[in-house]
Sequence to fold (207 residues):
Amino acid sequence: MAVKSQLPTRVVRFFGSTDYAHDALAHREATFVHVSKLNDPFDPYFALATDFGEDYSALLAHVEKRHPEDASWFRLAVTEDNWLSSVRDIREHMKTLSASTYVFSTNAVTKGLHPKDSLYMWGHYANGHRGVAIEFDPAEIARDLIAIHERETGQKLPLETVFAQVVYRHEVPRISREDFFRFFRDAKNGVPDEQTKLSKMYDVLNR
Fold:
């Protein structure tokens, strides 16, 4: 699932190293960094996080207790083998996503507040107020990134996936047994995937 976000009007990149900032200006380039090199190890957070340890028996027991009228079709539709295979696939997908993700970490101008006026931003992201802040045009970055992606992969990159808003939480929101049950029930009833609660929650987990 791709995380969708509106294109910001302006974004600012703080540089702790003035040499990196000068290099960006001299070459008129934006450098993308692998997620493992970010200063916040939890940003972005790629993981499958549940409140029941992905235990199939716990999931099935929940459905039998809370939704007995749905237990029959659930056992047939979501077998233990299929469940375990899905968990493995999700974990592998998250691992691949984390290993192949590069980002251009910026701060957006929101609600009239410009990052350059934030002492916290200067202190945290600009080497204790000794760095540099450069404002970039998000539309130009998006245009160039889409062109590079299409040239290298042969696939089009949707504009709304180029920038993603980071959502900070004190705790990682965990997917419950009820969330999974409702997801499978919605799929059975033909509810579009992007409208399900599980899809929306997973978008938040992987921003």
